[in-house]
Structure formats: C-alpha cells, structure tokens
Amino acid sequence: MDENLPESPCPIQSWVSQASACVAHYAQGLLRIDAVAADILRVRFAPSGRLAPPRSWSPVLDLPPAGLSVTEEDGVVRMSTDAMGATLGLECGLLQFLTPEGQVFAADLGAPLWREVALEETGMEHMPEPELPAGDARIGVFLQKRMAPEEGYYGFGQRTGQLNRRYRRLTNWTIDKSSPGHSRGDDNMYQAHPMFMAVRPGLAWGLYLNSTWYSAFDLGAADEEVLTLFTLGGELDYFVFAGPTPAAVVEQLTRLTGRPMLPPLWALGYHQSRWSYGTDADVRGIAQTFREHWIPIDAIHLDIDYMDGYRIFTWDRNRFPEPSETIAALHEAQVRAVTIVDPGVKNDRETGYRTAESGLAGGHFIQRPDGEPFTGWVWPDESLFPDFCRGATRQWWGELHADLVGLGIDGIWCDMNEPSIVDRPFKVSGVCEQPVPLSITQGDDGEALHAETHNLYGQLMAQATWEGLERLRPERRPWVLTRSGFVGTQRWAASWMGDNNAWWEHLEMSLPQLASMGLCGSPHVGVDIGGFYQNTVGELYARWMELGTFYPFMRCHTHCDSRPQEPWSFGPEIEAIVRSAIELRYRLLPYLYTLAHLAHRTGQPLLRPLLYDFPWATHLHQIQDQVMIGPQLMIAPVCAPGVRRRLVELPPGHTWYDFRTGLPIDSDHLVADAPLGGIPILVRGGSVLTLGNIRPSTADPVSELTLEVYPDHNNAGNWTLIEDDGESFAYREGALCETEMGIAPAGQGAELWVAARRGDYRPPARRLTVRLHLMQPPVGVLLDGNEADGWTWDDERHALVLGLDDDGQEHRITPRF
C-alpha cells in the first residue's frame, strides 16, 4: 500500500506558537501539535491544509489543555511540557518525542505522505460498491516511525494471535466473521482499537490513532525496524502518551477516552447463556436446576428466540405467554435477566410494528442517497438500521427499552452491531456479507460518510442503550454487553470476544486477547466459556471454567446446534469441578469488585499481562500464558489436554505463595501441580486478599469477610477494600465504604493493621476472619495491644486464624514469637 508515494511535503515554511499548541505550515499541508495534557500530545496533519471539523460522536473527551513551551534553535522547533517533549525539524519535517530525561521515542523516519487509495488495496471486503467514495475517503495518509530494537508492541484490542504484535500488519475495520469462529490468522474482528503501547527496557509509551476510518498499522511486517501508520480520510490524527509505565499509558488513554463504567455487582457474578433458552419453561428450568445443584449464578441471558419473528422489543407469546412472570420467577430465584437486542429492525410496515413505524416517522434509519431507507437482511429478514450518529436517534433508541425495563429486565445484550448484514435471507443458500454502502451519509445533518462512521456503529448503539437505561431507571446502574466496539466503548459497556470455537487453541488465545483489551482501556471483557461453535468435552469445559473464574466477565454461552453446556452436562466429576470454580468466583467478589472500582477511577484492567505490573522484568514481557488478576493474584492456567503439571515463572523481587496451600515458594520458577480442578493460583507477598463467603448469588450479602494475609519477606504491603450498595449511583455522592489495610514485612514481625472505615456506606453485619500466613506459629497474638483470645494455628496452611466482629473500627494484629 505504500508504493508510489508523492514527494515529501517539506520543508516547513513557517510555524507559530499558541498557548497550548504549535502550528506548522509545510509547502503543502498543515501540521498541528496540541498539548492535550502534560503527558498527552496530539498530532494532526492535513495535506489539504484544513483540519477536519470536530464530530459530536468523537470518542475523545475535552481535557483542559496544558501549557506548551515552544522555541526554535538551529532549524529545529523544540516543544515541551512538564512530562514530555518533542522536536520538529524544519527542513526534513521529522517529529520525535522525548522523555524528560531526553530519551527519544516514537521518532519519525520521514514527513507524512499521502496518495489516493483504491478499495482493493484495503481490507474492506464484500463492499456493495466497486470503489471508495470520492473525496477524503480515497485519500490515504501514511507515516513511518522508527521501532527501537528491544521494543514490544502490545494492545490493538480484540485480536487473535500473540500478545506481542511486532512483525504483524493489523487493520482496523469492524466485521462479523462469516466463517464459523475466528482463528489465529484472522485480522479484523468485531471491534476496532487503533491503539497500542510500546514497551522497552525502562520505558513504555502509547499511541492512539484517532481515526474512525479504515486504518492500519504495519509493525515491522514490511521492514523489521519500521512502524507504519495509515488511515483513510485525508488526515492523520494521533495522540502520543508519555507513559512511562504501562499503567500510566492505560490511565492516560482512559483519561482521554473515558473511564470504564462501574458495573453493578451482580454483573461480576456467573452468567449462563445459550442460543437459545427459547421458552418460559427452559428459562425457569435452568434457574431451578442451578439452585437444586447448589451452583451459584447471577444472570441468565435470553438470545434471539424470545422475540416474535426476531422483531426486536417484542416477545413470542407462544414461547413466553407472560414475560413479566418469567422475569419475576427469575428474580424470585435471585437470578437477573439479560435480553439480546440487535440493531436490525424488521422492515414491517404493514402489521403495525411500532418500532419500524416510529423509526420511519422520525427519520431514524440510515438512508440511501435517494432518500429511501437502506435495508439489508439479518435475523428478521429485510431490516432497517438506526443511524446512531444522530443524537435524536440515540434518544429514540434508548426510549425503546421502556417495555423491557417495565418487565424487570436487568441488562441488555447488544449483538450483530458491527453492523452484521447479509445479502439474502439466512434460510437461502449462498449468503454472504453485504455491508452498509460506504457512500451513505450519516449524522444529524448528513455530515459524514458511512466510511467514516462504520467503526463506531457498535459503540454508538451501546452508548444509546446505556443512556436510555439510565434515563428509564435512574436509581440503578445500567449494564450493557456489546459485541462490537471502538476505543471508548468502556464508558458504556462490557464486551465479549464473539463467536469462538470449542477448541483448546481458543482457550489458550483468550489470555492474550483479554489482556490486550485491558491495555486498550476495556477492562470488563470475557469470552464464551466452553466455546460457541462445535461441541466441547468435559476436560476442556472444566479447564475453561477454571480460567473463566478469573475473566472480568464470566459467561458460558454456546450455539444452538451444540450439545448442552450447563455445569451438570458432563457428569458428576466435571460438575463438582465447575461448582468449585464458580464458588471460588463468588469468594473472590470483594476483591474483584474493588478492582472494578479501581478500573472506574484510573482505567487499570482487572486481567492484565505480567508486563503491566512488572515492566522492569523484561524477560516476562513475552509471557502470555500467565496473567495477573489485579495486583495481588497471578494465574497460570492449563490450556492443553492431558496436562497435569506446568512451569510457572515467578516475577522477581517478591515472595510468592501458593493460594491453595497457603505456603511460600522458594524459587524464581516452579513446576506446579495442576490437576483437573486445580489451576495454579499464586499470591504476591504483601497482599491482603479480601474474600467473601460462598453464596447462591450476589442478592445475598456477604456474611463473612476473610482477610487472607501474605507477608512479603522484605516489603510492606497494603490494600484498600472498596464497597458500596452494588446497584445505584449513590457511590458518586460518597456512599462508599473504604477500608485500608496493610501488612509489615515478615522480617519485621508481619504486623497487620486494618484502618477504620471511611465513607457513608455501611455494609451489612458480618463476621471478620483473619488468616495470617506465617513461617512458624506464634506464641501469642496481640489484638489492639491486648492479648487476643480464641486464635488458632492452621498447621496445614501455616496460618494464624483469628475471628472477630467486623465493627468497622481500627484494629492491629501483632503475632508474638
């Protein structure tokens, strides 16, 4: 794609400094560099000399600009903020970025270049038009940067393949994979995240290509030392994040594109789904069987078969005679209900279908150039598609959920929103993709081509849904699940990775896939446990449930043609393993919910690669079959059949404990036992792991809180448990309960302190159990300076055990040796 490029636009003829920007005029083209924040610089280059107007649907938030110091010396413009710098060569047009210490990163190899691009040069397939629309849609802009020799490239969102994407070419265009399931060689998927972080020894920095058009990264595929950015649309627009750590990059990205939503507590519980639990009896039976088998569950999902002829916002009254009674029965069993909603609205103007009628009357559907609504084929057959770029359409769409909310539906599952469209009814052979034509205009004033807005379709649907639920039910946090998304979707929805297969390879691939999503600011993610397509088997299902325990979003989901995939479907042995895995999930909920709050505050992912927490340990950067769950837990799942032991690398500088035995590990790596039902779980020294009791669902409050305390030999540790009512927005007004706790190094006596609660929320009464893991039993224990009664020593797990009422007051526990 980078052949036959034009002459360089250089030299730069003039430049001017503004309060927070530097604007340079090339012989042809305009360059503008803005200090969006002290640690975020925005770079825009327009060959036409005119920057594109702002879009109301832009994923980027307005931040208060930072001051930018600009000077010129020896033909070089030097720019700096308090956190980063940049230089621009006036003769060559090369831009490079610098750390405050002067380390160069993201350095250009040449000035931006551009040319007209043909449709067949892109990865956009099955387009109904033979060529790209005229104008900016055909203008591709290219920029090459130098790749440091030891730099790895991570992120890029929803991808297949390895965690480190170096040496690959990746494009950004949302599609529904037409072949059953996705595989390692696939490029585009349901979501587009043109964002990455580069990590080298001593430095991590990030780049977000702020283009909703078709775009691409070449990460050394064409030239091992060259990073190429490409986008259609006639303008190059990207943000550079200063880092200098992976955690800082994620914080900077989510500060720019929005912090992740805080899900209700129930959304972190276990979800069961299938295409489809298609009748009232099916749905009630699943909930009842979970309760009879004493397996915790918080949500059941209803797929497309609950609808009348796949008409969204309707119910099939033969299958579900009284939907309100179905939902009430689930609620009686302490199970939430989630219904699927697709964007395709059946083009049914003759039978009084209200959704189609009101959408047509309000002009809410995408229209062809002749003014007629665009239609395509999906589940309801010929369908209309909302123009979510219109503010009025997003408002209309949100209000359409009123009936579902009135029935008591708890969450909405947005599917097929890439948007996924085919050229004929599914029942007719030869079906193939037929996307929305790129030349169709969208927006309040038809200001944008679909070529520009396509990648945002799923995100805007999720936004419209979330905002509608918030208006309809302001006392409860909305919960939306979306298949398609873009950078910024984290503000409104959780997501899953789409239609995977019941393959060991897809179990393995879920780790780098979800870790990459977290690095792109989307922490609430999961995959279909057990696999969507084909039939899973007992061992694979058990291993997937072991790992799924730690997915931020834990849902089992499968295809209508597959065998049953409920926990009891594979016999009593597998059922027992799965029950134990789900029970562990519920024990972990106080920890996981605290992580959700931290993600909401700073963007930090719940599930993350080792490089996030240990960037200095460069030998761990490539590891993708071990991940951290927050800062305290590390898991090392088994992803191959028949394996019962596996190697685990332990990050240096910490004491590590085996979660199951409670005992410390005395090496930098170990060959861990991993029997079926025994995924290796490691705890970092210095952790105060907050666990709850096993309960049928989150509708039951935590009645016993356990502090599993693991002293590090040399380092102190601390943790803050964050709690609220799990449902409302009251936390925004201070209705939180925050409890700080810490542990002294083992070498200094391993004293544990728990501070008095802060905040206006008070959790229900409960028992507090402290389990302090020590190398030897103490001779006594002081509680707040006095001899404690009733403590015991667990010899098997080498733990001091002390129980007391959780009164919210300050406590100090001191072992005496």
Molecular structure report:
The protein has a domain of 185 residues: Golgi alpha-mannosidase II (Immunoglobulin-like), CATH 2.60.40.1180. It is built from twelve helices and 53 strands. The strands form eleven sheets. A nine-stranded parallel beta sheet has the order 32-31-29-26-22-21-20-34-33. It has an eight-stranded antiparallel beta sheet with strand order 1-2-3-4-19-16-15-12. The chain is globular. The protein is an alpha+beta fold. A hairpin with a 3-residue loop joins strand 36 and strand 37.
Salient structural properties:
Immunoglobulin-like, 53 strands, nine-stranded parallel β-sheet, 17% helix, eight-stranded antiparallel β-sheet, 28% strand, 12 helices, alpha+beta, 817 residues
Compact description:
This protein is α+β, with helices and mostly antiparallel strands and 817 residues long. It contains 12 helices and 53 strands.
Helix/strand layout:
Layout: E1 12-17, E2 21-26, E3 30-37, E4 40-46, E5 69-73, E6 76-80, E7 85-89, E8 95-98, E9 104-105, E10 113-116, E11 139-146, E12 152-155, E13 169-172, E14 191-192, E15 195-200, E16 203-209, E17 215-219, E18 226-231, E19 236-241, H1 246-257, E20 270-272, H2 280-292, E21 299-302, H3 323-332, E22 336-341, E23 345-346, H4 354-361, E24 375-378, E25 381-384, H5 391-399, H6 402-407, E26 411-414, E27 441-442, E28 448-449, H7 450-453, H8 457-472, E29 480-482, E30 485-486, E31 494-496, H9 504-519, E32 525-526, E33 528-529, H10 538-548, E34 554-556, H11 572-602, E35 607-609, H12 610-613, E36 627-629, E37 633-635, E38 645-649, E39 656-658, E40 664-665, E41 669-673, E42 681-684, E43 687-691, E44 704-710, E45 717-723, E46 737-743, E47 752-754, E48 767-773, E49 780-783, E50 786-787, E51 792-794, E52 799-805, E53 811-816
Parallel strand pairs: 14-30, 20-21, 20-34, 21-22, 22-26, 26-29, 29-31, 31-32, 33-34, 44-48
Antiparallel strand pairs: 1-2, 2-3, 3-4, 4-19, 5-6, 6-7, 7-8, 8-9, 10-11, 11-18, 12-15, 13-17, 15-16, 16-19, 17-18, 23-25, 24-25, 27-28, 35-36, 36-37, 37-42, 38-41, 39-40, 39-42, 43-44, 45-46, 46-47, 47-53, 48-52, 49-50, 49-53, 51-52
Helix pairs in contact: 2-3, 5-8, 10-11
